Each structure stands twice: as structure tokens, then as C-alpha cells.
Amino acid sequence: MAWTWRFEKADGTETEPAVQPEEFPTQGDAESWIGEVWKELADGGADQVTLLEDGSVVYGPMSLHAEETAG
């Protein structure tokens, strides 16, 4: 099994990530990686990500933009 991320603009078109990912052996490894680099990815132009397992969508798209709350 290979877990990978697809990087997308807000309209769903694929984009090149600012940080090159690898294929991950587990879902947990993939999620840990995205948790570490999501801000760099967002700063680099990706708006959302979709998690894939062997090419099939597991979940997503998931926004890379922090939720803004009225304070």
C-alpha cells in the first residue's frame, strides 16, 4: 500500500507542492507529514490536499488554510 497526497488549488486543479512529498507506508505517516508541512504548502500556493491510498481517494479535499475566528 502506498499513501500519497494530491495538492490542489481552491478550484480543485492539481498544483505542484512547495515541499516534495514521498510515498508513505501508512496513513498515520502521511498525516503526520502533512501536519508538519501544511503551512509551507499553503504558503507555496496549495489551497487543499486529498489523501490517496494506491490512487483511490481516502478523504479530501482538506483545506490548508487556518480557520479564522472572529475575536
Description:
The chain has 71 residues and is α+β, with helices and mostly antiparallel strands. It has one domain. 24% of the residues lie in helices and 28% in strands. The protein contains one helix and three strands. A three-stranded antiparallel β-sheet has the order 1-2-3, covered by helices on one side. Strand 2 and strand 3 form a beta hairpin. The longest helix is centred in the middle third of the chain and has 17 residues, at 27-43. It is globular, with a radius of gyration of 12 Å. It starts with a strand and ends in an 8-residue tail after the last strand. This is Mtc1 family protein.
Could you give a quick summary of the protein structure above?
Residues 1-28 are annotated as: Disordered. With 71 residues, the protein is an alpha+beta fold.
Supply database-style keywords.
single chain; 71 residues; alpha+beta; three-stranded antiparallel beta sheet; 1 helix; 24% helix
Unreliable stretches: none
Overall residue-averaged pLDDT value: 92
State the order of secondary-structure elements, H for helix, E for strand.
Answer: EHEE
Strands across the major sheet, in which order?
A: 1-2-3
Q: What portion of residues is helical?
A: 10-25%
Q: Roughly what fraction of the amino acids lie in strands?
A: 25-35%
Structural class: alpha+beta
How many independent structural domains?
A: 1
Query: What form results from the Cα inertia axes?
Result: globular
Radius of gyration equals 12 Å
Distance between the termini: 43 Å
Region (Disordered): 1-28
Biased composition (Basic and acidic residues): 1-12
Protein name: Mtc1 family protein
